[in-house]
Model the fold of this input.
Amino acid sequence: MEGRKGAQLTPAPVAAAAVVKAVFGSEGLIREIILRLEFPTCLVRAAAVCKRWLRHASDPDFLRRFRERCPPRLLGFYFQDCPPAAAIRARLRGPGARHPHPPRWRQHRGRPIHRQGLPRRPFLVRNLNPAAGQHAVFSPLHPTRGVALLPPPPRPTFNRFFFYKADGGEDGVMALELEARRGQVQVVTLQYGVWAFRTRAAIQLPYQLSATGDILPPIHGKMYIQNVFGYILVLDLADASFSAIHLPDRVRTTNFRLSCGEDSGLSLIRAEGFLLTVWNYRTDNNGLQAWVLVADEICVHEASNSMEDVFVVGANDDAKFVLLGLARSGALVSMHLRSRIEKLHHERFNDLNLLFPFPFMMTWPPVFPALREENDQEE
Amino acid sequence: MEVDKGKGEAEETRKVAEADRDTVTLKSSDGKLFEVSKEAAARLSTVLAGMIAGGSIDDNGTDLKQIGSEALENVVDYCNKHANSIPSAALISSSISFNTAPFKEPEEWERKFVDRLSHDALFDLVEAANFLGMERLLDVTCHKISEMMKGKSPDQIREVFNIKNDYTKEELEEIRQELAWAFYDD
Done:
């Protein structure tokens, strides 16, 4: 017994085929094992081991159980360190596959172009040739798929790009020009390879805009612009009109971020001290559109432990994840709002207020390619 | 080591056994006898609990033909260790009612328990735990095997577990393309 123990310190790298076969051959056991992989990335890698594992991994019942055990995770996030600047850095975190080592960061140059709905894949727009205004869209997660070139927009000041759902339900690309001082917004959409103006004249707003405000990608034909104090501007793309939503009474600072999802609607996440409050803009009990309090006094433990204030610096598009900055240490914390699970990231930032990170989720469920079943009858 | 208590002494203890004795004797496929606390066996294994409740326990050693002596020794060892660690386990599960934890991680001693096993012993133990309906032991052993897969590439997983690749080159390439986010670090 004692002798055997010593030998086990360095287990044989290759297990005896028969024993492994018995366990992996059992449908129930292999499921129990890959169910405990914890990371969607690890599950996908396991599915690429052999066809039988792929069949288990792609079974809807199995995926549901996997999800129940493992809360959704961030795949990474982009951040821009200074939105109005011409060249914007965006970094992308790898999915942490080399467990348990911390994931590496990769740097991609480009401006995030947000895309609503599923699958939530990040895209970047890169200005290939500033003189010609030549932009390209690419996805850092699909480096092999290449880039899509966009024709130069009508003016170089059309420098914010978004995906939107066109009438036929297809992905369209639009570019936005925001003249902060004059309070003007102009929108062009890409149609048959040509930029077309949505409206003849720019939309004139009665407010001066702040140049650094966040603009959410269009959803159900509306865009939310968070850069007028005390209001959120709603741009209706269909008739090129705008309206304003008052912020909730309790929101008195700019320490909040908006999030808007196809199903979840508009949400607002605010921080005060180390506490978070979440509102959702929806029809209240009186049948009016209003801010409904969703969660209050969510404690950010990473901040309360070190007696720091938090900044809300980003949220994903269904307000499931928020990214928070710690005021003193400059650390970045992400939190899954429902489970309140926090994760402290290793990066430090100088000015979190100028940071516009955009968290993105793992694509879930993973969509595996269909196997050709006729090759597959050996078992 | 105290594990040995299950072996030779079994014959003696059996003679003085009364109807209300607090251990049960288990017999491996190769005829070796092991003794384990009745309470622990009933609590940790649904199959043994059923046998004890149904009176189908044999005082001369209940035959477990599907389980070899090495695996059964580990099962008994686990039951004994588990019985000894009850205070801390009970404390943890009753005093904290967070439902934020997605599932219960193996405890320190459980980790050590599976870490010392060879690949073969580990896989044998998974089967034994499955056969005996030992939910917690199955959880801990499956967790250990999944740990061995984490962070590895499909090639490395195949190598470690000696699994045949039945994909064509094109099929694998398709998976890597479609789910590139999972292979980002490669």
